[in-house]
Structure formats: C-alpha cells, structure tokens
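User: structure tokens for this one?
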Amino acid sequence: MSVLLMAGRKRDKGRSNSASESEEETEDTTEYISSGSVKMWTWTFDGDKLTIIFRKDTMEVWVDDDKIDPTSRFSGSTVIMDFKIGKHQARIRSTKGDDDDMLTIDGIPVD
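Assistant:
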C-alpha cells in the first residue's frame, strides 16, 4: 500500500528518504533552467533589481518569482505581450524562429 501512495508523489531534490533527517536540514532547491527557449533580462527598476523571464515555449512571463498574465496579440509569427510592472508599461516582442526577443519598458529597450 505504501508503494502506491509514494508513486504519485514528487520528490524534492533537497530531501532524502531518511526518517532521521529533520525539516530544518533541507536546503532551498529553487533553480532556473537555462535553454534556448528562455530569455532573461535583469534590470534596475525604481532602485530595485528585477529579473524578467520569458519562456518562449510556453509564452510565460515571470517578474522575479511572480508569474504575470500579459495581454498577448499575435500577428503572423510575431507575438506582442503587454503587461504592467508597478506603474510602468512593459512589452515583449517575440518572433518565432528568431532568438532576438525584445523587452521595452515605457518604450525604452532593455538589454
């Protein structure tokens, strides 16, 4: 019966199966996977450092650790995603087959 219960559970990388290991000994296993389908920008924004991540394969946009729900417009093989960061307007323009995704904030390109 325990085999069936454990089969559906996802195991954290920072945990072991040992019953003697306490919860305090586990470490943070947050990691970012870099690939050709992920574009990341780091930008100082109103005095704070922000990381904006765009996953081209799933069309997800993340600001720091928060998933953003942008307004997306499609035109042929190009997608334009608009979203807000605080009081600022941000836009990601991405074209299928092109690795040159562009982020602008308040119309200013971010490298």
